[in-house]
Amino acid sequence: MHRPKSTLEQWRILQAVVDYGGYAQAAEQLNKSQSSLNHAVAKLQYQLGIQLLEVRGRKAYLTEQGEVLLRRSRHLTQTVTELEQLASNLEQGWEPSLVIARELVYPMELLTDALAAFLPESRGTRITVVDTVINGTNELIVNNQVDLAICGVPPKGYIAEPLCDLEFHLVCHPDHPLASLGELEDDRELAQHLQIVIKDTGLNPSQEIGWLKAEQRWTVSNFHEAKVILAKGIGFCWVPQHLIQKEVAAGELVRLKMKGASTRRIVLTLVVPQRDNQGPASKLLESLILAKHADTSGDLMPYMLVEL
Question: N or C: which end of the chain has fewer CB within 10 A?
Answer without folding.
Answer: N
